[in-house]
Amino acid sequence: MTKVEFVDKVSVTLIEAAASDSSVAMAAWVSNDADSEERLEDLSKVAGLLKFLYRESHMSPFEHGHFTFKVDVPLFVAREWQRHRTQSYNEVSGRYTVMKPRFFMADEVRVQKGKMGNYHFEPGTPDQYALYRRSKEIGVQSQWDIYEQRLEAGIAKEQAREDLPLSLMTQFYATMNPRNLMQFLKLRNEDSALKEIRQAAVQIEEVFANYMPMTYAAYVEVKHPAIVVDLKENKFNEQETAKNVVRNLNNYKDRRD
Ligand SMILES: Cc1cc2nc3c(=O)[nH]c(=O)nc-3n(C[C@H](O)[C@H](O)[C@H](O)COP(=O)(O)OP(=O)(O)OC[C@H]3O[C@@H](n4cnc5c(N)ncnc54)[C@H](O)[C@@H]3O)c2cc1C
Known about the structure:
Order of helices and strands: EEHHEHEEEEHHEHHHH
Helix content: 40-55%
Structural class: alpha+beta
Strand content: 15-25%
Shape: elongated
Largest sheet: 4 strands, antiparallel
Bound molecules: flavin-adenine dinucleotide
């Protein structure tokens, strides 16, 4: 029987991104036929426009572009994640592949306090953590052994996997446009969110901030009015993005003419 492996981290890897502040601005300007390249040169205007759009909930310009991530999380996080219906998903299949013996085990245990709608969590005791660890090691290993026994007996993968625990790690692709991404962050990088999905949301927020610093500033300003994002501090070069958008626009015009 294979000894199971425990991991205590969730991870998000950027596979591909095609998203920029400039695309949002150009999409907004096309509505009055003013999507000219020159307008992108005035970055303070672009930043002001994005803040206006986000603040006033004119959200469709934020639907242009996409981010694709490969996500490595336990099933109990994937279940929450995939409630975000406006993202697109593809996930490793337990019907077609043999699962890997990788399971999630947190490096702490927490205790729920408060009442429905107003919970908070406090650190558990060393005894509680010891119980969490030990019971998981026994329970997960035993369910994994059953899975392998079923496979060895020739039972189909889709049935053999039925009793694997929620801590089994899964991998999926999630593709989202900037609007879906911000909706995800709003709900999941939050105190009220499950800690493990929040750890993934923090990683997504970092990628987003790098690709779309002005949109990120608008998002932060509405979500946390006390925080002002200093765009100059941001590593990302918005002028480069603007050039890309102009290049794409020129390619499009060449093809059209
Ligand atoms: C802290 C927390 C606790 C939660 N607890 C529970 C729980 O106990 N039980 C539970 O079932 N879920 C729970 N959820 C999940 C939650 O109800 C949402 O399903 C999930 O957060 C996805 O959000 P969303 O619908 O905005 O995202 P998406 O599905 O990506 O949708 C984005 C937006 O598109 C629009 N939209 C999408 N689909 C429709 C539709 N069918 N009709 C109209 N508008 C639509 C809405 O404006 C929506 O906000 C919880 C979420 C959080 C963050």
